[in-house]
Amino acid sequence: MRADYIMVGGFLGAGKTTALLRLAQHLTAQGRRVALITNDQSHGLVDTALAGSRGFPVEEITGGCFCCRFDSLIQAAERLARGARPDVLLAEPVGSCTDLRATVQYPLRRMYGDHYRVAPLSVLVDPIRALRVLGLEPGKTFSDKVLYVYSKQLEEADIIVTNKCDLASREQLDRLDKALRERYPRAELFQVSAGEGTGLDPWFAALAAEQGSRAALDVDYDLYAEGEALLGWLNSTIRLSAVEPFDGNLFLLELARRICGRLAKESIEIAHLKVTLATDDEADGPGTLNLVSTAGEPAFSRILAHAVSGGEMILNLRAEAPPGVLRVAVEDALAAVAAAAGARAEVQQLECFRPSRPNPTHRILAV
Ligand SMILES: Nc1nc2c(ncn2[C@@H]2O[C@H](COP(=O)(O)OP(=O)(O)O)[C@@H](O)[C@H]2O)c(=O)[nH]1
Ligand SMILES: [Mg+2]
């Protein structure tokens, strides 16, 4: 039996994890065994914690994207096959990664076609971000080299999914749809709200097909590497403790607001800030908060029901800024918020860096 391999890409913060968890629920309800594979440049991932907290088997590929860690991807899939024996693998690539058709999907098909049935490549977009990036609405976005990566993601998509339809007006969605159709005529388009769970079925049905065989992208790897490296990356794991229980939701909110306020002052555009707090109270949480642009508002995808006396917080921040700037913003915000809450914040792990040049294990342009 071949397992289905379904990969959902898209820029940072577009809603990949939210959508994949919806898809995982949908497939599970159909009696299929699902496992997830998350991916990041570094370890300590909010996404892995979220997938695990929903009870799905999950493997995490860290230290590089799927394309550069192709063998790790195969090994992770094999580990899952030995353990949870999934018949569907859902894979979320790094949101600043592109050329996945040539470096992941086509190698899988050519070398492991007996093991995996590869679904069409979906790329998710956040409509508010996309309207700006495509020049349809004013507003701050990223520099041109970062947008090169964004446009390549769309160009290689078999399916472009406009997510978060609940956040845009009908008129905005129509305008975006028209522009996407004109610029990416080969892609199949869907409009969904993974957050609200609406409009998903037609897209999920399209994933039952096998991926077509059009030629892979022409990618300028110098430009791609420069674009990716303009984004700073910070992953941290922090142990929180307090004698007097504190409001964990307020803690997360204030932390995000302070980090964002600091970066806004320096005109730095946030791609994605995500924070999750798993408290020592196992019946509660994890509390999870996200922010997907500097001008945006932090939003909870899960709130904590009880006051917190201890727990583990994972923070992932990606923004167009030097990593050292991100580090200072996070450390200062953390110190201030912990002091206000009367909590002790002990940084157990913190990594900040720029992604290194993508160096795919395989690059197969046609199957
Ligand atoms: N309003 C709204 N928010 C969403 C939707 N889908 C995802 N989000 C939110 O967007 C943020 C980023 O989502 P996430 O799935 O982590 O994005 P990823 O970086 O692409 O994996 C989170 O706050 C999600 O709750 C949606 O359909 N509507
Ligand atoms: Mg994600």
Strand content: 25-35%
Based on secondary structure, the structural category is alpha/beta
Number of strands: 14
Low-confidence stretches: none
Estimate percent helicity.
Answer: 25-40%
The unique ligands bound to this protein are: guanosine-5'-diphosphate, magnesium ion
The value of Rg in angstroms is 20 Å
- The run of helices and strands is EHEHEHEHEEHHEHEHHEHEEEEHE
Number of helices: 11
Describe the fold and architecture.
With 367 residues, this protein is of the alpha/beta class. It is built from eleven helices and 14 strands. Strands 1, 2, 3, 4, 5, 6, 7 and 8 form an eight-stranded parallel β-sheet that branches. Helix 6 packs across helix 9 and helix 10 runs antiparallel to helix 11. The protein is globular, with a radius of gyration of 20 Å. The two termini are 21 Å apart. Guanosine-5'-diphosphate binds next to helix 1, strand 10 and strand 12. Guanosine-5'-diphosphate (GDP) binds at residues 10, 12-18, 95, 163-164, 166-167, 193-196, 272, 274, 290, 292, 299, 301.
